[in-house]
Specification:
Helices cover 32% and strands 25% of the residues. It is an alpha/beta fold and 503 residues long.
């Protein structure tokens, strides 16, 4: 099934419904479909084999997504936050291509061989041109729908391949067709090159929920736009949610129209989601765990799970706030050990997943197994009721004296200290133990006592998991999609530095 069929079905069923943009100047399904056809007619006549998108969130983005699909060309949104050198190098890898670029970003990629540039405004004018709209589109049988480049923290970014069948399988299995009421609206504040930004377009189109794009995230701007547009649904990453809650609390803002807020893209500190449930009790919170290579979500902790856990005094139920819920019913999920053996409840290993929405491949190589199972490189375990707990990337697991330790488990304990605003735990090379545990702490006010923090870990976990090295910073490094850059910290902390304080 082709992603463009999602738009065709919706525009046939509800052509006049406003689906894109703000309430006062929105775009209907029929108009969006017409613009996509006009853009596709022009793209079909261009020699480029891929359609690159370099720009902020805007109504231009969904038009370009569907125009590229109708033209039979993969759509590749690019990270505009890269340095000019990195950006030009990445765009050059897409050649031969057509790049739709926000006008203020055009100078950054001028003159890249094999890449034809067009401003996003000029492209929209083409999409609105009557002649292009009326043109007959050539028959194409495309396979690749989206190319998403990884963050490239350990080398050059890899291009994850998402085929039309992967994307539509996810949409159809997770969203009901035109299920949204006319007054519902979804706020998209994650960037275009994030899988959540792509899936928000496709699921919004299929569900009929009006899509409002926020060009660039600020917590104040998010709250303002959510209130102005009467946003009912939104998705954020954990770092965004914490900053939004600060604004909500300081203003006394209730966001009465907000019905559902999903979060994902990184580990959610339990203290943050507990605060969210307290400040916004009328909102249905959903933890959505997924990967780029799986076309978005593969497990969900739903609203009832959140409310049951927050109200419970049973430690087993309460800890579910730290889980990502249960796998989607359309998927298979297993925890496997080092030899590939399937592990039982409570046993930690690597998360494997299989299903039609799973791609598990890059332009350079295919990671998915011949039997359809995809090794995620995420560590985790499942409880007796099938709730999944993600411990983080296997590369981030600390191995001290042959014992595997989850950084997230230690971080959760340290965040319980009232003066800890943020914390990252990682393994630092050690000649005696292989690795020693290091905690990088951002204090909320004043100084945190190392003795207090160490005692807290010893009390709730055990001595071997107590950090041996403590570092205090003003802030931790995150990328723009909210992922903690542990490798950046590790690289910095493995260099000689006389300011590091050892406990």
């Amino acid at each position: 099934m082709h992603t463009a069929l999602l738009l065709e079905m919706a525009s046939d069923a509800a052509p006049d419904r406003i689906i894109l943009g703000e309430m006062e100047a929105g775009i209907s399904y029929a108009e969006l479909a017409a613009r996509a056809r006009g853009g596709a007619a022009w793209l079909s006549a261009q020699p480029g084999e891929t359609v690159v998108y370099l720009g902020l969130n805007s109504p231009h983005l969904p038009v370009a997504v569907f125009a590229a699909g109708l033209a039979g060309k993969p759509f590749a949104p690019i990270n505009y936050r890269l340095s000019d050198e990195e950006l030009r190098r990445l765009v050059a890898r897409t050649a031969p291509s057509v790049a739709i670029v926000d006008e203020d970003m055009l100078p950054r990629v001028q003159g890249v061989d094999g890449v034809q540039l067009i401003g996003s405004g000029a492209f929209q004018a083409i999409c609105e041109d009557a002649e292009h709209r009326a043109a007959e589109l050539p028959f194409v049988d495309p396979d690749i729908g989206i190319l998403l480049f990884t963050s490239g923290t350990t080398g050059e970014p890899k291009a994850a391949v998402l085929r039309h069948r992967n994307l539509t399988s996810y949409v159809i299995s997770s969203v009901e067709f035109l299920c949204a009421d006319d007054d519902q609206a979804s706020l998209v504040s994650v960037p275009p090159y994030h899988i959540a930004g792509v899936s928000a377009i496709l699921t919004g189109i299929y569900s009929g929920r009006r899509i409002v794009h926020m060009p660039a995230f600020t917590p104040e701007g998010w709250v303002d736009l959510a209130a102005k547009e009467k946003i009912s649904h939104a998705m954020v990453v954990p770092t965004m949610l914490g900053r939004i809650l600060d604004v909500v609390e300081s203003r006394g803002e209730k966001l009465p129209h907000l019905k559902a807020l999903s979060y994902g893209g990184g580990r959610m500190p339990q203290i943050v989601i507990e605060r969210a449930l307290k400040l916004l009790p009328h909102v249905d919170f959903v933890n959505a765990y997924g990967l780029t290579e799986t076309s978005s979500t593969i497990a969900i902790l739903g609203p009832d799970d959140h409310r049951t856990a927050i109200r419970s005094t049973d430690p087993k139920l309460r800890r579910r706030l730290g889980s990502v819920g249960r796998p989607l019913p359309t998927l298979e999920l297993e925890i496997r050990g080092p030899a590939g053996e399937v592990l039982g409840p409570g046993q930690a290993g690597e998360i494997f997943v299989r299903g039609d929405q799973v791609s598990g491949e890059y332009l350079s190589k295919k990671v998915i197994r011949d039997d359809g199972w995809f090794p995620t490189n995420d560590g985790g375990w499942m409880d007796e009721e099938g709730y999944l707990y993600v411990e983080g990337r296997l590369d981030d697991v600390i191995v001290r004296g042959g014992e595997n330790m989850s950084p997230g488990e230690i971080e959760d304990v340290l965040r319980a200290h009232p003066n800890v605003a943020d914390v990252a735990v990682l393994g630092i090379p050690d000649n005696e133990w292989g690795e020693k545990v290091c905690a990088v702490v951002v204090s909320r006010a004043g100084e945190c006592s190392i003795d207090e923090l160490a005692a807290l870990v010893k009390e709730r976990l055990r001595s071997s998991k107590t950090p041996e090295l403590w570092v205090f910073r003003d802030a931790l490094p995150y990328n723009d999609t909210g992922k903690l850059l542990r490798r950046v910290l590790k690289a910095e902390l493995t260099k000689p530095a006389d300011e590091l304080a050892s406990a």
